[in-house]
Design brief:
The protein is mainly alpha-helical and 55 residues long. The chain has one domain. It is built from three helices and no strands. The termini are far apart. The model has no long low-confidence stretch (mean pLDDT 90).
Length: 55
């Protein structure tokens, strides 16, 4: 879980950038986009097989 503690003299914009970077590193945004729509297990396997195939 991403969490940023703000000190009294710290700028809110800077804390927001830190939070967004933590979310990106942990993959929270990507996971939300993947879970937004249901994908069948066979479609997931097919997508994984395509990405592993060297071209």
């Amino acid at each position: 879980m991403a969490e940023v503690r703000i000190e009294k003299k710290e700028d809110f914009e800077k804390a927001l950038r830190k939070f967004s970077m933590q979310c990106k590193r942990e993959g929270i945004i990507r996971e939300c986009r993947e879970r937004q729509y249901y994908t069948k297990p066979s479609a997931k396997r097919r997508r994984n097989m395509k990405s592993k195939t060297p071209r």
